[in-house]
Amino acid sequence: MPNTITLSETANNTLAELEERDQRKYRKVLKTLGLMGANIRHQGLHTHEYEGLKGPNGEKVFEAYVENNTSAAYRVFWYYGPDRDQISVIFITPHP
Known about the structure:
Number of domains: 1
CATH class: Alpha Beta
Distance between the termini: 31 Å
Radius of gyration: 12 Å
Shape: globular
Strand content: 25-35%
Number of helices: 2
Helix content: 25-40%
Oligomer: single chain
């Protein structure tokens, strides 16, 4: 069953900035978000729990790869919820 993707204001702002200044990364992020919506366990996402960060209500936060083996590779940080089959994206950022 597909997931609904919800972007935080921060993630939405990052996506808008990428659209203006880096179309290549913007398209990669859109592809990643599409894969997350279709199949969060897609092997290309390399999804795993991200220790040290919690959602607004203590939810486990996960990391999905936008890029790999790239300098300052982008990542999507997200958690499940608040509704069933919903993924809430907190940040879209270069790898910390």
